[in-house]
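Bench notes, afternoon.
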Amino acid sequence: MAETCVQYLFKTENDLAKPGFEGAKYVCSPPLRTEEDQQALWEGLIDGSLSSISTDHCPFNFEGQKELGRGDFSKIPNGMPGIEDRMMVMHHHGVGGGKFSLERWVEITSTNPAKTFGMYPRKGIIADGSDADLVIWDPDKVHTISAETHHMNIDYNIFEGMEVKGMPDIVFSAGRLIVDNGEFKGKVGDGQFVRREAITDVL
């Protein structure tokens, strides 16, 4: 099984070369590479060579954290934020861009990650006996991604200004409403530890 992170599909080494110290926002491991490498990753998602799309979600602020590397590249905290935008950008550019089907989008963002982590079929599928973790998706809602409106506790967004079509509308976790029209409805402590099982199936 193999995966890639969402940033590698949209950012390249050119972002590292942005003027001033802006490139520090895009420092991660492994580093961003070329547009040709980026295209190869898209092809891997399309042909099944890559089984899932993830994010390391490292919410280091630019001010006070990424800036620790001014004058010494090795001190820049590695990683980028992306958990909040992963589903939207992959739906917009993958499904909306005609690269793969809606079913494949669900597979690489939900079903296969659940299998990888030994949580399937409790997670990653809508079925009797599975947890009622559901996202009601509005495929027509348009949104412009920005640090000014995102919910992540970080002062920048790597997709700043990107307009996407398709957004989560309602989210249920174990059958409980936790998000409604962008507003968090859950409670601290509602989460539950899920012990992973040994993986017996290949993806």
